[in-house]
Amino acid sequence: MNRRYHSTNFINSAHNISQLPSDQGYEVAFAGRSNCGKSSALNTLTHQRSLARTSKTPGRTQMINFFQVEPGRYLVDLPGYGYAKVPKAVRHHWGKILERYLSERQALRGLFLLMDIRHPLTDLDQHMLIWCRHHTVPCHLVLTKADKLKRGAALACLHQVQRNIAGIYQDTSVQLFSAPKRIGLDKAHAKLDEWLGLENINPHIPPQEHK
Ligand code: GDP
Fold first, then answer.
1. Hey, which of 46, 54, 118, 143 would you mutate to test ligand 1's pocket, going by the most ligand atoms within 8 Å of its Cβ?
2. What is the share, in percent, of the chain residues with pLDDT greater than 70?
3. pTM for this entry
4. Which of 33, 60, 170, 174 could covalently link to 82 via disulfide, CB atoms 3.0 to 4.6 Å apart?
């Protein structure tokens, strides 16, 4: 098990670009439709109950939240998109901020794009993929709630998504994930390690012992 992410802690929340922490270090952002399981995935990956707030009310978390894995290494929880009850002006505001964040952020090493395995690659998800391609941000598609399907059906969906993106989106990978069943945890950690530049550091050794 990769324990490196277990002491991840909350740093701050931003409502707009000017409130973002200084653009330094490495960060991986998490995006997805509201209710896709983004908060549950962040909590599972960091082995914490409520680092990211899961909510019964989709579309409630409208902030960019920064979490520090270790100094200079961050996970960024972007606001969930696609919730119909969010007023149009608010959706427009966040659409603009998301695009500015993806286009301008130097620290951004890659985007985890989370999608409910039962509704993958919606129009809004594809919009995110197009933005990533346009701004050359590598993208890792995480098919959440994989426990909702039988293993064969989940794998069929994984392969279908792989076929759909092949040749269209470079620098894009896909995996299955389930928060309650802890499916795909190692794969997701490995991708985070790679993007955060942590892959050559043994996560089982406490940080002070790395020389
Ligand atoms: P967010 O709005 O994207 O942050 O989604 P949440 O993490 O709050 O999850 C939305 C709902 O889906 C909640 O009821 C979660 O318990 C449920 N959920 C999230 N991930 C999983 C999963 O991997 N498997 C199952 N079965 N349910 C999940």
1. 54
2. 91
3. 0.93
4. 33
